[in-house]
Amino acid sequence: MKAGIVGLPNVGKSTLFNCLSNAKAQSANFPFCTIEPNIGVVNVPDTRLEKLEELVNPERVIPATVEIVDIAGLVKGASKGEGLGNQFLGNIRETDAILHVLRCFDNDNVVHVDGSVDPIRDKETIDMELQLKDLESVEKKLDKVKRAAKTGNKEAQKEEAVLTKLKNGLEAGTSVRAIELSDDERIEFVKPMQLITDKPVMYVCNVDEAAAVEGNAYVEKVKETVANENAEVIFLAVGTEADITELETYEERQMFLEDLGLSEPGSAKLIRGAYKLLDLETYFTAGVKEVRAWTIHVGATAPQAAGVIHTDFEKGFIRAEVISYNDYIQYGSEAKVKEAGRMRVEGKEYVVKDGDVMHFRFNV
Ligand SMILES: Nc1ncnc2c1ncn2[C@@H]1O[C@H](COP(=O)(O)OP(=O)(O)OP(=O)(O)O)[C@@H](O)[C@H]1O
Ligand SMILES: [Mg+2]
What we know:
Blueprint: E1 2-6, H1 13-20, E2 38-43, H2 47-56, E3 60-62, E4 65-70, H3 85-93, E5 97-103, H4 119-150, H5 154-171, H6 183-190, E6 201-206, H7 217-225, E7 232-236, H8 238-246, H9 250-260, H10 266-277, E8 280-286, E9 290-297, H11 302-309, H12 311-315, E10 317-323, H13 325-331, H14 334-339, E11 344-346, E12 357-362
Parallel strand pairs: 1-4, 1-5, 3-9, 5-6, 6-7
Antiparallel strand pairs: 2-4, 8-9, 10-11, 10-12
Helix pairs in contact: 1-8, 4-5
């Protein structure tokens, strides 16, 4: 599961990537600095892991991770191949969620490809290219399906109707995620197409240092504009945070953040947002050797969660012993939770809850 960073050239995508990941991407003040995508594995900050660490005192702690991809900037005409557009759009198609970076700072020294700062116009430019790319895929499919529908194939006729709705919506400038369709239509026909504008999106407003805490007028404009998109908007002083990341010690970084008026880096909020956007959640294992966060899809059952550790755990699953995170913290240890009768034994049907502390019983 990975989230891709998209936006116009030179808006701060690679700088953002560098705030998040230890893999250093080249960032510089000219458009199309990035050509090949940069891929980074990013730890998901989670204070629950720190609390469990305090209680269990393990040899090591392993956080959950999420993959972030820094993609080349898109320009107007990308869907027609402008600025290596097709290649870049291909990179975006391979991701599961989109972090859309919008330039929300004034600075005459940083070039804007369209000559002025206007995040709403920029957003529309990017959306339009992504929609045009999807339209191309939909039209191709529609051609095929129409032929099958003519022969009287009922399934093809249903699909034709859905594809026609997609085509009309995209032509009117609506992203696939916002086109009105039933759940069944989405699951059966739309999801398998992996369209770019069907992926969940979060808007990341790149602001300057002065707006790090409160945001600014650009951010407000963005929030207003996307209010009915059911998408999250966050703002982040990307340039400043990249400078903070460069500092050697935790104390230095913390001091810099406090000076700015922040209790944690905005990048932490962003990573947690990306994790949610990907529809992921966490369960824990907590032993003296290792306290660890494991990543599952929302709605995963106990055997599926066990399968994340090892496929044998899933195949030979017998039962799970589960402690709610809050119980673990309240009673302070596994033994005390057991004493209090708060440990549950769950079977194959159990849907894991975010924060569960689990043990699996299995045979191989
Ligand atoms: N909030 C900010 N304030 C001022 N300058 C910034 C800010 N964010 C990024 N920059 C600067 O903008 C320039 C472009 O940044 P970056 O290389 O990250 O852009 P990009 O979106 O990755 O571009 P490309 O699409 O060309 O790869 C860099 O010089 C960076 O330092
Ligand atoms: Mg870049």
